[in-house]
Amino acid sequence: MVTSKKTTKFLREHIAFENTALKEIRDIANSKNKPLVQLETANLLYMIIKSTKPSTILEIGTSIGYSSALIAIAAGESSHIDTIEMLEENMLEAKENYKIAGVEKRVNVFLGDALDIVPKIETKYDLIFMDGPKSHYLTLKEQMISLLNVGGMLVCDNVLFRGLITGDKKHARRKETIISKLTLFLDELCTDNRLYTTILPIGDGVSISILKGDTDE
Ligand SMILES: C[S@@+](CC[C@H](N)C(=O)[O-])C[C@H]1O[C@@H](n2cnc3c(N)ncnc32)[C@H](O)[C@@H]1O
User: Fold this and answer.
1) 56: helix, coil or strand?
2) pLDDT per residue as tens digits for the range 110-158
3) At CA 171, angle to CA 169 and CA 36, rounded to 5?
4) Is 66 in the pocket of ligand 1 (CB under 6 A)?
5) For residue 69, which of 45, 74, 101, 155 is within the disulfide window of CB 3.0 to 4.6 Å?
6) Residue nearest (by alpha carbon) to ligand 1 atom 11
């Protein structure tokens, strides 16, 4: 997280969007030590989806399906979600968790490496949530943009990487490659004329980019 412990505690005590199924999936993920989006980022994602109502959504990094279930619930009955996960055990658990959330008919999991799967995708999306390999955000950036509908949104989690990107926290030398890749990724996102981009210090840092249309300034 990139906010102070007190702020994070306060935010978490005031966030109340999760239904029983999402709470259950979050508890399962925590009990099995599976990665999942932080509560405040999940809340932001929920708000974005509720207000923009995307109908086609792509996620990179399924884990055991918490965020994809959340997306499917927030986006509603007419939405479809594709999500990519490289570990089969996670994919199988995600499919069980979609049943808990009642969204199993609307979520499709691609099993494999996002770097292999993304170039084969032909669908365009209203929203893409990047929550997979942080070291490949930069590699995947152009492909993500090419998969967005005009007005579509690219939301990327962990972009401030525990405060290491802004220098708020000291880092070990072994983190330098990931830090320089994420920094370059943010530099490119923020200076890309095709996009409107903002970076929010929520959770582990979230970037939100919107693909401009021909008449947008
Ligand atoms: C932070 S977790 C995703 C959490 C999930 N979005 C949620 O909040 O419920 C990242 C996931 O990406 C998967 N992953 C990592 N590298 C990947 C790759 N190259 N292709 C596909 N999935 C990958 C990991 O196995 C892990 O399950």
Assistant:
1) strand
2) 999 999 999 999 999 999 999 999 999 999 999 999 999 999 999 999 9
3) 75
4) yes
5) 101
6) 61
Q: HSE of 10 in the Cβ direction (CA atoms, 13 Å)?
A: 6
- Rounded to 10 degrees, the C-alpha dihedral 173/143/151/211 comes to 60
- For residues 50 and 174, the model is more confident at 50
CA distance 90 to 121: 21
For residues 14-19, average pLDDT:
92
Q: Is any ligand 1 atom within 6 A of the Cβ of residue 35?
A: yes
Under DSSP, is residue 98 helix (H, G, I), strand (E, B) or coil?
helix
Distance (Å) from CA 158 to ligand 1 centroid: 12
If we measure between CA atoms, which residue out of 209, 165, 198 comes closest to residue 184?
165
* DSSP strand pairing (80-85 vs 107-111): parallel
At residue 173, the pLDDT reads: 76
Encoded amino acid at 114, one letter? A
By CB atoms closer than 10 A (0-12, 13-18, 19+), residue 145 is middle
Whole-number CA gyration radius for the chain: 17
- Pocket probe for ligand 1: among 62, 66, 71, the residue whose CB has the most ligand atoms within 8 Å is 62
Quote the pLDDT of residue 79: 98
158 CA: nearest ligand 1 atom = 1
Closest CA to 211 of 125, 133, 114: 125
